[in-house]
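Lab manual, section 2.4: Encoding a predicted structure.

Procedure: take the sequence of the chain (415 residues), apply the prediction step described in section 2.3, and record the output as structure tokens. A sample record is shown.
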Amino acid sequence: MKKLLIIILALGAVQLQAQDLKHFKRVVKELSSSKYQGRGYARDGANKAGRYLQKEFTKAGAEVTLQPFTIDINTFCGAMEMSADGKKLRAGVDFSMREYSPGVHGEYNVYHVDTLNFDGDKLLEDLNKPENKDCMVCCDFWFTYRHRKVFSRLQKAGECPNAGLLYTWAAPIKFFKAYGEKVVDKPIVWVTPEAIEGVKRVKLNVDNQFLKDFALFNVIAKVPGERHDSCYVFTAHYDHLGNLGKHVFYPGANDNASGTATIVTLAAYYAKNKPQFDMYFLAFSGEDANLRGSTYFVEHPIVPLEQIKFLFNIDMIGDDNPVLYCELSDAGMPQFPKFEAVNAEYRLFEGLNRGELAANSDHYPFAVRGVPCIFVENQEGSAFPHYHTPADNMKTLRTESYEPVFRLVTGFIAK
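Recorded output:
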């Protein structure tokens, strides 16, 4: 009878584990569907996703509240057309927009920067010649970054008569939102080197819409524990990049429907297995707009930050790299050996690759305020090249990291 009971319990554990993965996939599939249009801002995709998560956390057995805040953000949901010497380019594949770019409508000559014999003064002199007036200046992005004092002048009205900038970026072309709280004077377009090489003239028809004081909200779920003087916190951002024109959206299955789905299943797990301490599950919006939701939370916390025993930020784990990338706050560093011990004991990942703390996800506003926290992300797997592209979808998502991440954080808490 004892052996039979062990077998029944083992089968039950396997069943629960399979159910978790099924739940994970269902949430990721829903959030990355066209219904939410990339969980961006202009078409209200982020807020629609937030309302869906409110229902999911409630069904999981958590207590749910919403924390509203506002942002200013530049968006691109209208016309999105570009051609190079008459050849039509594909939005999101051959070109995209810099997040703080204005719209642009017109046909322009292309000035290709000579990077081998670069001279900033000579460049500005050339661009002031009548034949180069109202041209689009084309250059490798990383080169412009190294010489940003010169190229930043080309973004400003009155500094130089160029019409705008074309930044080349190796495929797959990316789209960002981090610095979209402003709009500069001149248009800036990302384009692949292959699409613009040798091109003499481009035609652009791009609309932008700047949203002022746009209303968003964080979804806050709580599973009460036996004690309320301390808590554990799980975070993930549910917003993403939204649209690039009328017909292209960024599904964000890996970034970060995967992390969001993970904290939903963690909430369900702890609702069924009453924890010793209160558990909070914070689904942040505005992360892709420069960590706006998590920053608002730490400035208006619903639980004192000093009561957080440990915070787990889960971002982009829909990948298959056998080594897990981690960042820890200074306050969290003493606990890193315990994560390594849990990982080794359960044989979860081949290793934990610890990087330097950076302002790259929602753990950072907590980390700089002394909260013990860890950020986990699965980098450089087969899904990683697709992040911030329209190809970050259910077809490229990998689920190998979900269960190990789940066991790593629950195993750490259990110990």
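Check your result against the sample. The longest helix spans residues 2-31.
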